[in-house]
Amino acid sequence: MTSDWRSLRPRGISQERRNRGSILGSAGARQGGLGQLHARRAFSTSFTSTNLGTSWLIVPILGAAAVFQVVVVPKLAVRGVYPDLILLLVIARSLIAGGRGAVFWGFVGGLWMDVLSGGAIGASSLALMATSLLTGIGHNAIFRRNSFVPFISALSGTLFFSLIYLAILVGVGYRFPPIPLVINLIVPAALYNCAVMFLATPILNRLPEQANYP
After folding, report:
1. Backbone angles phi, psi at 146, to 5 degrees
2. What is the pTM of this model?
3. Residue 78 pLDDT exceeds 80
4. pLDDT digits (tens, 9 = 90+) for 166-176
5. What is the DSSP string of 142-198?
6. For an engineered disulfide with 123, which of 5, 158, 160, 168 has Cβ 3.0 to 4.6 Å away?
């Protein structure tokens, strides 16, 4: 009997341990499965909601746009005036996703333009960043779908950008006649930008309203 009892006890304990182990294992498996599910959901959420507006992926994209601005856009000049593609992209981005999201665009796009055009490094970036905050006021699903909002944003954004840019250049030692520059270059460029933005408004209105837009 004793031998039977001794022989049964280990089996009883091992069976109990196996039962406990199976329970703990199943609980651990469920927790592990939930953890993997949460991890997959977190990864999926972070991937799908990645804000390309603050992602370094936008660097080569705006670089390509800057090259297009320098190489191709001048061929669209009318009496020596042509639109500013980078400025229009920053304004459009601020209208769609807000001025804060467009600040990074302005910073990167401005650096590209300064490097490719040989201008004062950082001047375009500072001017574009400030402009994005100004035109970001139109970031609203109600207001930005009004045809006049992109038009006014392009007009005010171009003038604001130009004034800040010129002020920075004057601050670092550049000298130029202000009145002829405003009349012959800034105002016509602002009108050209307004025309391009007005034509692009139907496309902008089809883009979804979301904070994490690229």
Report:
1. -75, 130
2. 0.71
3. yes
4. 999 989 888 88
5. TTTTSTHHHHHHHHHHHHHHHHHHHHHHHHTT----HHHHIIIIIHHHHHHHHHHHH
6. 168
